[in-house]
Amino acid sequence: MNAPTISDKDKLRLSYEFNAPKELVFNAFSTAEALNEWWGPVETKNSAISLDFRPGGVFHFSMKFGEHVNYGRFLFKTVNAHDLLEFTNAFADEKGNPIPAPFDVKLPVEIFYSLRFTETGGKTSIELTGEPFDATQEEIDGFNSIAEDMQRGFGATFSKLTDFLKK
Fold first, then answer.
1. SS3 125
2. With contact defined as beta carbons under 8 Å apart, do 108 and 140 qualify?
3. Most buried pick, 67, 71, 90, 150, via CB within 10 A?
4. Domain 12-166 has CATH 3.90.550.10
5. How far apart are the C-alpha atoms of 152 and 82, rounded to whole Å?
6. Any idea what DSSP says for residue 8?
7. H/E run at residue 67
8. Which of 128, 95, 105, 107 is nearest to 12 (CA)?
9. How far, CA to CA in Å, does 117 sit from each of 9, 25, 139?
10. Are 76 and 57 a contacting pair, CB within 8 Å?
């Protein structure tokens, strides 16, 4: 059986600009203390469980909403300081193992993200691309069905990053 091909229409593409140098923006991804302050859905309280910020390293975190807790995991693929960050992102169990998303929509277990950082005149842009990783056609369709929700979610998360960078 052949895996479905990811086409350009199956990729999430977003761009965000921050009024900060790219070293500062990139470094906000590199420590648990920073990620605790800004990463994740705005309606959750997020806490780093572990962070190994290097290729092959893992960021394992919890997301608490009321009494309910979900876990997430990044598996870092590329870490080129201040320029490029690539990782797969997944919901996870308490031990950091990827699990299916806890939603009614059938989503890929993992999503591959690439973030490119560029600076012009003291302002940094992040060009984010996300795409299903090792997914079935049903999972790709589910990913595409929530594209607007992902855009809103990243917008809110990066708004928290903007506030963090002002500190």
1. strand
2. yes
3. 90
4. no
5. 25
6. G
7. none
8. 128
9. 23, 8, 29
10. yes
